[in-house]
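Posting this for the archive.
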Amino acid sequence: MDMLQMYMPLSLKGRGWGRVFFIFCILLGFVSCTGRQTQMQTDAGDTIPMKYARNLTMVRHKDYTEVFIRNPWDTTKVLHHYVLTPSESYAREREGTLVRVPLQRAGIFTAVHCGLVKELGRESAIRGICEIEYINIPSIKKAVAEGRVANFGSAMEPTIEVIMDAQPDALLISPFENSGGYGRVERLGIPIIECADYMEFSPLARAEWMRFYGRLFGVGERADSLFAEVEHRYLALREKARKVEYRPTLIAEKPYSGVWYVAGGNSAMGILYQDAGSNYLFSNRKKNGSLALSVETVFEVGQQADIWLIKYNQSTPLTLAQIKSDYPSFAHFRAFQTGRVYGCNQETSRFYEETPYHPDRLLSNLVEIIHPELGIKAEKHYFCRIEE
């Protein structure tokens, strides 16, 4: 664990020269991926405690808030350093990317962040989006159709001219390892908010990033309150699932182009499967993210699994007959024969928009499936039984 994560959220509680010197020592050790050096500030500020997120640190000063996003692919470095301020004059001499808050004209490249901003009551601040075909939010689709929200096109190759016409005050973009930067978008001079929440190590860690996004849009207290509710519900469900004596075995997903991608044991989905009271058969693969495995590898492990969960994208519901037609040998899976195969159609549900910041909703759905004897009623049904 790196020094910033180990000490800053826990130890920087008081004020004084010792604390200033401590921050000086830590921050000098962080160099951003673009070569910027993070420098000591004259006002040490107060660290906002984070309970789960490892890659996010926020420090509140009198007239601005500093945000440090740790590089999830090289934890000795800072991916980005932001200075959030309502007035440029407050932080003119500070290092980092200056972001005027609250955001009034945001460009958002992902459906999941559109959904969160809407839930926080700041949908009116969304002025441009990418990937409209993957957004299942009726009000956003209507706004795009009516021209009130600009369609930037593909997130990988957005239309620069449309972005310039929309005049966003910031762009919320998901970063990727070794992406080589943001090309022409980066040269526009618009602050880029690197949304690295998806690289966190647990469902609650990712959800806690809503506290950062809330501060971007001027609703920090609302975001804090929402996260506290999510955390409370999640932990209560997890505790009930932990008390079960029998944990059914579980596998997930299905092959795609000859590769079977499964959640690593240390990924958010892998942890969710375990927190729901299952014996997830790939929990021993301690990886944060997905594993690309051969069909033969998963088949050997998964054919005796009690439960099979599948996420898919298509206009009509997936059926057992379709699975059997595509992969005849899968009909011999225990879960297939006992009717415990469940699917989540990501094209028609709001799985991606809702579950990253509401893992409690997904957990209730999984507990209901895995342990029906507990009598838990799912708040939302993302996964439903796949019929013949």
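Residues 220-242 form the longest helix (23 residues). Confidence is low (pLDDT under 50) at residues 1-42.
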